[in-house]
Specification:
536 residues, alpha/beta, Alkaline Phosphatase, subunit A, 2 domains, 4-stranded antiparallel sheet, 21 strands, 17% strand
Amino acid sequence: MNASRVAPLLVVSLFASSAAGESRFPNEPIRPNVVLIVCDDLNDWVGILGGHPQAHTPHIDAFAETAVSFENAMCSTPVCAPSRASFLTGIEPHTSGNLFWSPWFENEVLANSKTMMQHFRDNGYRVVGAGKLMHHQRKDEWDEMPMLADYGPLVVEDGQTVAHPDVAEPFASIGAIDGSFGPIDDRAEWVLGRKRWAAGVGTRVPFTPGEATPDERVASWAVRRLERFAAASDSQHETGPFFIGIGFIRPHTPMHAPSEYFERFPLDDVALPPMLENDAADTHYADHFTPEVKGRRYRRLIAQSYGSSEEGLRRFAQAYLASTAFVDDQIGRVLDAIDGSPFADNTVVIITSDHGFGIGPKSFLFKNALWEESVRVPLLVRAPGVSSAGARVHQPVSLIDLYPTLVDLCGLPSDTRKNDRGHPLDGFSLRPLLEDPSAGKWSGPEAALTMLHADEGAHQPLTEADYNDPTRQHWSLRGVRWRYIRYNDGAEELYDHDTDPDEWHNVATDAQHRATLSRFRAILAERVGVDAAREP
């Protein structure tokens, strides 16, 4: 990370001090605490982003009134494992070569670069976390990590996890994770039949509706951990600022939530996202991925299972809305604990997601695509004394900017490499946009970059030589007005968000947009290499 990207603070004087904010090292300035809240698969169906008119996220929305909301925040890649590896190491997938599903710690560049957690530990922070943060989690990155990712509760039949009984075939045949959604209840027919609830993946421990779910347990742990920091702030063990990572599973599948959350969204009243008939006809995704790739297959199966796309997507949307409302309540519990603690005025709080999720448009039902639904994420940052409460930023930014932003806000060293085989941070500090959301002099790029790996479900799978070659993948650039998509054979899509916010009309072949295409081709060439931006 070069010096122009982050200028570490000499004194973090803009943050109020607290007993638990004292440095563990003599003669160091007071540094703010950090709470990082990461959801899984949370798209723009959040009240403040307006992605769905029925989205019920009062806690996130209320937090937005105290924070800065980045309305055009994008993930580095719309796939769980590489996205998390990227923003928690601050290194783009195409920089590291960690492009898809390989464990990040087996990648030479990432293994020789400090994760966000290690860098904070090395600089005097007490680093604790629970839930899903890295996909391939390593507990030794944390001072304390009592709970890993848990997708439960799940439904078990004859000793095997299966889809919720409310899910019709053939969608249910997808399986207990992606093929399952429905309320956590204790209906009588379950008692008489062979199905029952189990606590989670890899376990047959019975689960009784009304018990705390994994996300509820993670929220409870976070609340207790904050209380412990407050109670023990004068003990030698707890001295120093803290970093808390909180990883919630929902709204990731299986979209199981207590019945009350489904009842908030009566099925007959659920609105579907805006869709255009044959919307995928002018796109190139189907030219590169077979009908059996997950997003295309899931969209087809949901229609077959319920007699029509409309009925199937309405049921899926209900479960997504319910799961989002559920995780919002868990976030609310954590936010209440922060705001009621001695640390409220000295804690940076971030709420985000690893990537989005497409629910219907373009004949697609999943992530792993380069359109807005899969790439856009909520990103809210509250930095007391720095951020402008209630402000919104339209400049496109990336999750890759999180790490350098925290380095800047907390006054940490800018070099996060372990040795010369590591890599500097790729992103840019968002601090100027936190301080002045409308006119901050941000040094970052004009467009946010996203990569999609080209192999899974591809018509022509990559060769071994191409598999880890960034120039053989697919790319998207999101500017303030335009989204540009380029596939690895040169096929292009271009969407004008000023007139087409739903990305219904690919205007890449319109002669009037040649200059825009040329500009985005040049940006892509500069960011990821000439081969990836060659003329089609």
